Amino acid sequence: MNKSADNADNSVSANSEAQSNSTSPASANADATSSESAQTQATESSTPSPPPSLKRQRALLVTKVGLCCFVVGATTSAAITLSPQLSQSRNDATSAIPQIPSLNALTDKLSLNRNEAAAAIPKMAPLGAIAHNVGSQGLGAFPGKISASYLCVAPPQSLTEPGAEQGEIIPGLANPTLAALTNAVNPSFVSQFRAAPWPEIHEAARTARVPVLMYHDILEEKEVFFDVTVEEFEAHLERIEEEGLTPISFDQLYDHLRMGAPLPPKPVLLTFDDGYVGHYTHVYPLLKKYQYPAVFSLFTGKLDGDIAGRSTVTWEHAQEMAADPLITIAAHSVMHPRDLRELSDEDLQREVVESKQRLESELGILIRYFTYPEGNYDERVAEAVADAGYDAALTMSNYEEWFAGESDDLLSIGRFGQSQLERVLPDAWEGLGMEIVGANTFDFYSPIRLVERLETEEVPLALITGGRPATVHADSRYQLPEILARTNATAAVDGAFFNLRYLDSNVMIGPVLSQATQTFVPGNPSENPLLNGRPLALISADEVKFVPFDADIHNTLRGIQSEMSDVTDAFVGAAWLVRDGEAQPASSFGTLFDFEAYRHRAFWGINNAGQPVIGVTKGRIDSVALGELLHQVGFRDAMMVDSGASTSLTYEGESLVDYTPRPVPHMIALLSEAEAQGPCPLTFEDAPNADNTWAAEY
Ligand SMILES: [Zn+2]
Question: Domain 5-93+197-427 is of which CATH architecture?
Answer without folding.
Answer: Alpha-Beta Barrel (3.20)
